[in-house]
């Protein structure tokens, strides 16, 4: 058995998120990125779907994009990385591209990233660009948005907090820790807009879209920086379903603005002194920091 | 009666071109940009579709985009330009935007442009960008494309020629002149690609895509600059249907790469010393030269 990691970029507009959705009875499975990747891999390798077990670093939601998604899968026979990359791109639809493929140790796990970076892109011109509307949120009255207040409030998220109030937590909420660390949260200029870029060790379900929604409420003046601080401080008291479902002072920001930019892993050495795969740097890196749309990622 | 001009930008991927298509019997009309603009204008002005008579500077084909399309329409009652712009953008789908609206003299005609600029965008990285594939053609073996040879061959088109061999001419081909003037044809760098930008006084049906196809054949080495020169010189002998349908040495370049960038009109004064509309500069200008996607056009 051989294990591979691939870096994917996709325009998520047409997909029901990354993860495979069970088909409603008598119907086809909804198109997801995972479905398209598995279909291409089956044809490229001649393997059955079950054997591949495609897993992703971040299970992006419906409509969310990626510039640096990392996926992992197994192959019974050794594959050349370059032919596998070409075959994937020949067999996947044009809104999903593989930009790097690399063999990884069998005990390497795509879920154990050391940090992830998400970008949330805003369009701030009065008239939204018809070529960008798939990837940028166009807030109401963009000319009134106070970007400086948003940048200041974003800094409040940096650090280790209980993010319970900034997530959609399921019934198993108590099983996983809602304490996460945000390493940086910046507001960057984009042509005609702005980007909120957040890096953290991990994120709860819909956490980035909750944080963005809160920051947009701050920018619009309906929420103050002190409300953000209070919601962060009050995280541990928000565990009941009623509290979680109450209006929190912001709307979850829409999916279209969100993009998984980069996933960073520790070098193999820290996973047990394993040899890096041939040609590998010892780190699977989705080294793609640019804006969607912008230049392409690392070549294989 | 009042006449208005509007500058439109659209992502043409989802549309059957600009012009209204007759509905096949028992079916709905195919979605075209004109259909969506007319539906929005009817709702915005309360007028019937017939009264509007929306006309475009260039009837872009299925899948072709625009950053500076200019359209003209009539309204029985005077409309404020700014409210009309807002209403249009509220009522049109997000892949069509109006970036400027202005009242024009009743005898002004959107079809009488003094020049038009089209851009044809190529993606030249080995792996095409999934965020750009809707607007860029990704030629086979882009790493082997000889851009310098393409730039040299593009210069051959500049001037006044019979472009019969570089067009799809219908049965009424003899009714209109196939002699057109190309004012400039440049190869510009794009991040991860290149743009072929051509400006002319007017273009035949599919002329830009024919010229692009010929230039791609030159870049790929299957055609020489002398073949281009010969096809231009032999234009007047290519009027028979058989000659027009014969393989010419190139494929018509695909629609996705093409974008109507700018339409320029002579000042009102040259149309009979009419006063420019309030706030107008005397010229309806789609002054949008940037790449799709890029910054937005002129504000109203």
Automatic annotation (TrEMBL), chains A, B:
Residues 6-112, 153-265 form the Pseudouridine synthase I TruA alpha/beta domain. InterPro entries: PsdUridine_synth_cat_dom_sf, PsdUridine_synth_TruA, PsdUridine_synth_TruA_a/b_dom, PsdUridine_synth_TruA_C, TruA/RsuA/RluB/E/F_N. It catalyses: uridine(38/39/40) in tRNA = pseudouridine(38/39/40) in tRNA. Substrate binds at residue 118. It comes from the Eukaryota. Belongs to the tRNA pseudouridine synthase TruA family. Its EC number is 5.4.99.12. The active site is at 61 (nucleophile). It holds the Pfam family PseudoU_synth_1. It comes from Chlorella variabilis (Green alga). GO terms for molecular function: RNA binding; tRNA pseudouridine(38-40) synthase activity. It is an enzyme of class 5 (isomerase). Keywords: Isomerase, tRNA processing. This is tRNA pseudouridine synthase.
């Amino acid at each position: 058995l051989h294990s591979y990691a691939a870096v994917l970029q996709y325009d998520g507009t047409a997909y029901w998120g990354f993860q495979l959705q069970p088909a409603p009875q008598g119907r086809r499975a909804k198109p997801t990125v995972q479905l398209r990747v598995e279909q291409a891999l089956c044809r490229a390798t001649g393997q059955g779907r079950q054997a591949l077990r495609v897993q992703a670093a971040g299970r992006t939601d419906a409509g969310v994009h990626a510039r640096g998604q990392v996926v992992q899968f197994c192959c019974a026979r050794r594959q050349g990385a370059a032919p596998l990359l070409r075959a994937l791109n020949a067999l996947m639809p044009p809104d999903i591209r593989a930009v790097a493929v690399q063999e990884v140790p069998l005990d390497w796990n795509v879920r154990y990233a050391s940090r992830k970076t998400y970008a949330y892109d805003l369009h701030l011109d009065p008239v939204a660009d018809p070529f960008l509307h798939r990837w940028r949120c166009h807030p109401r009255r963009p000319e009134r948005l106070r970007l400086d207040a948003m940048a200041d409030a974003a800094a409040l998220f940096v650090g280790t907090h209980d993010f319970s109030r900034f997530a959609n937590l399921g019934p198993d909420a108590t099983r996983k820790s809602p304490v996460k660390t945000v390493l940086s949260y910046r507001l960057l200029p984009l042509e005609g807009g702005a980007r909120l870029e957040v890096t953290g060790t991990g994120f709860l379900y819909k956490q980035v879209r909750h944080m963005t929604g809160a920051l947009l409420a701050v920018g619009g003046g309906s929420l103050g920086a002190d409300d953000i601080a209070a919601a962060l401080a009050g995280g541990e008291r928000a565990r009941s379903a009623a509290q979680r479902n109450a209006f929190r002072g912001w709307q979850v920001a829409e999916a279209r603005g969100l993009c998984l930019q980069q996933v960073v892993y520790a070098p193999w050495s820290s996973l047990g002194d394993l040899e890096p795969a041939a040609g590998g740097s010892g780190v699977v890196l989705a080294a793609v920091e640019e804006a969607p749309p912008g230049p392409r990622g690392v070549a294989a």
